[in-house]
Structures are given as structure tokens and as C-alpha cells.
Design a protein that fits this description.
174 residues, mainly alpha
Length: 174
């Protein structure tokens, strides 16, 4: 009987610990939501996808412009580019990234500190700061992308030219 009571107490305690973790996880996710992190991670993944798509398309456009393939090979080049784009996609979702971040970030704070952070980040001034920060970050990202685009285009153009030279030097069998 005593053994059963001990086992029951252990299960009850582990259930309470798990419930505490769930409550803590919920607090951390509420904090990340108030900070705008979930949306930020989602936007970052979308921006990375757009950047990958743009880079792959630039490579295809340069290749097609230089090689001037017939319609059949044009389709093959485009299909290969689509395969590359698909292969460049990360295997995780924005929610999975958020969960990983929550675990790492949340471990740095006590429950009391999480409560204080939640109180701050749900305040009107912090919400305004979060909105302003996200808007500024989006604007900043667009600025950086516009500044980077010429470098990216030039690098891809050099790569395509190099591949053409190597192709001619190789005289590879088709």
C-alpha cells in the first residue's frame, strides 16, 4: 500500500511539474507574441524564401540569356531551377523556429522575471515600441536588400560566365 502511495505521489508530482512547464511555456509564448517575435520569424522566413527565389531566377535568366536554348531545354533549365529552389527551403516551419527560440530564450528567465517582462511588453508603450521596431526592421531589410541586389546580380553573372568558359574548355560530352 505504501509503495502504491509513493508511486502515486511521484506521478502526481511529475504531472504538476509538467503542468508548470506548460504554464511556463505558455508564458514564454505570450511574451514572444507580445514582443512580435512570432511574426518576425514568419516574416524572416518569407523574406529568405523570396531572396532564394530571386537568386535562383537570376541564375536561370542569365543562363537562358547566354545559352539561348530551345523551348525543350528552356523548360529543363527552369525545372532544374525549381528543384534547386525547393532544395533550398528549410525543413522547419516558423512555428518550429518560434518553439526552439522560446525554449532557449525562456530558459534565461525565472517565472517572476517572465511575469515582469509580460507586464512590460503588454503595456501600451511597449506595444508601440514593438510595432515601430517591426516596421523599422522591415524598412531596414528592404533597404539592405536594395543595396545588396547589384552585388548579388554581379556575382551570379560572373558565375554564369565562368560556367560558360568551363563548359567550352571542358568540351564535355552531352
Amino acid at each position: 500500500m505504501r509503495r502504491i502511495a509513493c508511486i502515486g505521489a511521484i506521478f502526481l508530482a511529475s504531472g504538476l511539474c509538467h503542468a508548470g512547464d506548460t504554464s511556463r511555456d505558455a508564458k514564454v509564448h505570450q511574451l514572444l507574441n507580445a514582443q512580435g517575435m512570432m511574426t518576425t520569424f514568419d516574416e524572416q522566413m518569407r523574406m529568405r524564401e523570396e531572396s532564394s527565389r530571386r537568386s535562383v531566377q537570376m541564375m536561370v535568366d542569365e543562363t537562358l540569356k547566354r545559352l539561348k536554348p530551345n523551348a525543350s531545354f528552356r523548360k529543363k533549365f527552369n525545372d532544374a531551377a525549381q528543384e534547386l529552389f525547393s532544395a533550398l527551403q528549410p525543413p522547419w516551419s516558423a512555428q518550429e523556429v518560434t518553439d526552439i527560440w522560446a525554449s532557449i530564450y525562456g530558459s534565461k528567465f525565472t517565472d517572476d522575471e517572465l511575469d515582469q517582462l509580460l507586464a512590460f511588453y503588454t503595456s501600451p508603450v511597449a506595444q508601440k515600441e514593438t510595432i515601430a521596431g517591426r516596421a523599422s526592421l522591415a524598412e531596414f531589410g528592404q533597404y539592405l536588400q536594395s543595396q545588396y541586389a547589384p552585388y548579388e546580380k554581379k556575382a551570379i553573372q560572373r558565375y554564369v560566365e565562368r560556367m560558360q568558359v568551363l563548359g567550352k574548355e571542358c568540351r564535355c560530352k552531352r
